[in-house]
Amino acid sequence: MKCLACGSEAVVGGTVLDNSSGGNIVFKFDEVPIWKSMFGVGTRSIRAYGCVHCKHLQFAVDFSEKDVQRFQQFEGEQPGVLERLASDTESLRGCIDQK
What we know:
By secondary structure, the protein is an alpha+beta fold. 30% of the residues lie in helices and 21% in strands.
């Protein structure tokens, strides 16, 4: 991995911690309500890397394969929740019709 700021390859991996409650800091999807994220729903782990040369800190999110498939299929602005639900309903109908 290279530093985004200076291009150096001397990057050290680490974990970012939330010192206020002692737990890990996580990435929360905007569409997930805060009360669900308290139970770990809609959150992903964060990896942190620090550059030894320029002291730049960069983060990376540990997306699941399902997340990658879900979010990379869209170009540009993400569709709203209602549009996603409608498309999920259509795909479920196709599965039910096949049975």
